[in-house]
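Whiteboard transcription, Tuesday session. T.W. wrote the C-alpha cells on the left side:
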C-alpha cells in the first residue's frame, strides 16, 4: 500500500450527498472522484457548464454513482441561492460542502488594478462566504447536521508576496472556518480546512508558473520530502475530513505540503545551500580554536 492508493474502506461515504465548488477540474475533480468511489453522490459546480457536464459524464462512467453538474458563479449570490435550491431539489439533503473554487495569479501587487485585486477576493472570500452562509442557513433552519471543508493554502497564515489578494482571501477563509467551527457546532455543523502545498493542476500551474517560470522554479525543490503532491493523497485526507470518522475534528486546518512552508519559514533553512566541504572547513577551524 502507498500514498497513491485510496485509503478509506469501501462505502465510507455511502449515503452522503456532497457539493464541490470548482468540482469540474483539478483538485476539486480529484477529491470529488474519490468521494464518488467511496459511495457518495456529487453536485459539482463552477462557471463553465460544458466542462462540468463532461466531467460528470466521465466520473459516472468511471466510478458509477450520481453526479449533478450545476453552473454557478460563486461571486453572485442569486446564482448561489439558485444552485443550492436546484441541488437540494435534486438530492433532498446535502450533507457536505467542499469550498474549493478559487481564482489566483501572480503579479507584483502595485501592478494590480482594483478590479484584479477584487476579482480574486470575490471568488475566494466572498464566494466561499456566500456558499457557506446559504448552506448553513438552510441546514440550521431544517435542523440538519452538515460538514464544511474549505481548501486554503499555507500562505493563509504566513502571507506571501506576489499573490497578495489570494493570501488575504485565504486568510479570511481560514478565520471563517475556525470561527464557525465554534459558533455552529451547536447545530451539528463542523468546519475544517486543508492547506495543500504544490499539487500540479492545469489551473494553478498555468497561472502561478506561466511561460518559462515552470522551468526556472521547480516547485518540488522547495519541498523537504523532494516531490510535489499526488492528487490521491489529498483526496484521502479530504475524504476522511468529510466522513463521519472525523466527527471529533472541528476547526482544524490540516497541512499537506511535505514540509514546504516550514522550510520557507525557518530563518536559516537556506543554509541547505552550503556544501558539505564548507561545513568541514568550519568544523576544522572551530577545532583549531578549541
Ligand atoms: C494581473 C490580471 C491577471 C494577471 C487577470 N487580471 N489576470 N491582472 N495579472 N495574470 C485582471 C484583469 O486584467 C482584470 O482587471 C481582472 O483581473 C479580472 O480579470 P478577468 O479575466 O475579467 O476575470 P475573470 O474572467 O472573472 O477570471 C478570473 C481570474 C481567472 C481569476 C482572472 O484567472 C480565473 O478564471 N481563474 C480561475 C481558476 C484559477 O485561478 N485557478 C488557480 C487556483 S490556484 P481589469 O482592471 O483589466 O478589468 C491557487 C493555488 C494557490 O489558488 C497555492 C499554490 C501553491
Ligand atoms: P483549478 O483547477 O483552476 O480550480 C479552480 C476551480 O474554481 C475551477 O474549477 C474553476 O472553474 C472554479 N472557479 C473559479 N472561479 C469561480 C467562480 N467565480 N465561481 C465558481 N467556480 C469558480 O485549480 P486547482 O489547483 O485545482 O485549485 C483548487 C483549489 O486548491 C483552490 O482553492 C486552490 O486555491 C487550492 N490550492 C491549490 C494548490 C495547487 O497546488 N494546485 C495549492 C494550494 C491550494 P470555472 O473556471 O468553470 O469556474
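and on the right, the sequence the group agreed on:
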Amino acid at each position: 500500500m502507498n500514498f497513491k492508493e485510496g485509503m478509506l474502506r469501501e462505502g465510507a461515504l455511502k449515503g452522503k450527498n456532497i457539493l464541490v465548488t470548482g468540482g469540474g477540474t483539478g483538485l476539486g475533480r480529484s477529491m470529488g472522484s474519490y468521494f464518488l468511489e467511496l459511495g457518495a453522490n456529487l453536485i459539482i459546480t463552477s462557471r463553465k457548464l460544458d466542462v462540468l457536464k463532461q466531467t460528470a459524464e466521465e466520473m459516472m462512467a468511471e466510478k458509477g454513482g450520481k453526479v449533478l453538474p450545476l453552473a454557478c458563479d460563486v461571486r453572485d449570490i442569486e446564482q448561489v441561492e439558485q444552485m443550492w435550491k436546484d441541488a437540494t431539489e435534486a438530492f433532498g439533503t446535502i450533507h457536505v460542502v467542499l469550498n474549493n473554487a478559487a481564482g489566483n495569479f501572480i503579479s507584483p501587487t502595485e501592478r494590480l488594478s482594483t478590479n484584479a485585486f477584487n476579482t480574486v477576493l470575490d471568488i475566494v472570500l466572498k464566494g466561499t462566504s456566500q456558499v457557506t452562509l446559504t448552506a448553513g442557513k438552510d441546514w440550521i433552519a431544517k435542523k440538519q447536521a452538515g460538514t464544511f471543508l474549505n481548501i486554503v493554502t499555507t500562505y493563509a497564515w504566513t502571507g506571501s508576496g506576489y499573490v497578495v489578494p489570494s493570501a488575504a482571501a485565504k486568510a479570511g477563509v481560514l478565520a471563517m472556518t475556525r470561527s464557525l467551527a465554534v459558533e455552529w457546532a451547536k447545530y451539528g455543523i463542523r468546519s475544517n480546512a486543508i492547506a495543500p502545498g504544490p499539487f500540479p493542476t492545469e489551473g494553478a500551474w498555468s497561472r502561478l508558473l506561466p511561460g518559462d517560470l515552470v522551468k526556472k522554479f521547480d516547485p518540488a525543490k522547495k519541498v523537504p520530502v523532494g516531490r510535489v503532491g499526488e492528487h490521491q493523497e489529498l483526496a484521502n485526507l479530504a475524504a476522511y475530513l468529510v466522513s463521519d470518522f472525523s466527527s471529533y475534528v472541528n476547526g482544524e486546518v490540516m497541512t499537506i505540503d511535505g514540509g514546504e512552508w516550514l522550510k520557507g519559514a525557518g530563518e536559516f533553512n537556506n543554509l541547505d545551500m552550503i556544501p558539505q566541504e564548507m561545513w568541514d572547513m568550519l568544523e576544522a577551524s572551530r577545532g583549531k580554536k578549541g
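Someone added at the bottom: The pocket of NAP (ligand 2) is lined by residues 21-22, 24-28, 46-48, 51, 73-75, 100-104, 123, 127, 151, 153, 196, 198-199, 201, 203-204 (CB under 6 Å).
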